[in-house]
Amino acid sequence: xxxxxxxxxxxxxxxxxxxxxxxxxxxxxxxxxxxxxxxxxxxxxxxxxxxxxxxxxxxxxxxxxxxxxxxxxxxxxxxxxxxxxxxxxxxxxxxxxxxxxxxxxxxxxxxxxxxxxxxxxxxxxxxxxxxxxxxxxxxxxxxxxxxxxxxxxxxxxxxxxxxxxxxxxxxxxxxxxxxxxxxxxxxxxxxxxxxxxxxxxxxxxxxxxxxxxxxxxxxxxxxxxxxxxxxxxxxxxxxxxxxxxxxxxxxxxxx
Length: 255
Fold this sequence. Notes:
The chain has ten helices and seven strands. With 255 residues, it is of the alpha/beta class.
């Protein structure tokens, strides 16, 4: 595991209050689970793989929707796996630590799913190839990720006050569309969610609570003075945070 992956895992391991602050993560899991049920209304996957399961928001919904399926839920952070297991003790789910970019689990799977993990990947296109190789013919990969415009209110506040901003530069849906592998067809749908943020302090605290405060690689830390200016700007002009969500669906060809 490289240093940045290690840092990501450490942040999420330490996110003891994740469930209390992860409203957007829960809503995205609901959004994805509903779409999965629609797409697979006429079929029931025998085996399901979830990567980046976190504390099990999507895991719980997959288990409820497909109670007879063999579900393997994975995450890079051992602490997240532990918390998911504690939440879902009554569910027949197999949990294991795994880096979703390097899926070291035997396929095939009729469904591979993930909610708000893909934006952490370092090489998305290669990872998609590896994941789709694990799909059964006709199987589906369905996932959500963050798109440009997410956290825009905080980025704007930092820019207006000359403060370095560690918000990642997310990839837009048109670029993601070009990264689907051969051997199937994929598409991205886009939706927008808003999360109440009464002030900058609350927003930044929530990021730390869910383990998502790691800045973009190579970004310059903000000085205390510039950070305070950005926070005051946010408090004057904003009361919510925007999240642009990409929902991707890939269907593997049948012979």
